[in-house]
Amino acid sequence: MWAFVALALLFASGCAQKDWIDRTLVTENVSGSWQGVMGGLPVGGSAQVWLTLKQEGNKVSGEFRTVPRLASWFTAEGALEGTMAGDVLRLNDTRKTLTGELTVSGDEMRGQLGRYPATLHRVESSSASSPPR
Predict the structure, then answer these.
(1) Is residue 89 part of a domain?
(2) Which domain, by its residues, includes 89?
């Protein structure tokens, strides 16, 4: 009987440890400027997206801009906050109108921004990659 209890505790502690590691392990760094497209929009097909991100550990902060403005309720620019877990970036703006989950692979991100598919690429800090004002 004691062997069964010990075995159950061993398996339970091993599962908890793996989940904790999965939540805290960060395999990608998203710091920098990113440019890309959100597709499948009802207001004209696609929108340009710019992100400027700073990552410290698993915490991410930054700013975003979209062109064109997607809807009156949708924030077209503003501050972002998010987290990295493994290679997945989860982010949202302060009004929670822009939320996203993107998988990062080097200088590329793919996933969802809101309900729409998005692909972004890391760009150099130059005037050509700066978001329009």
Answers:
(1) yes
(2) 32-129
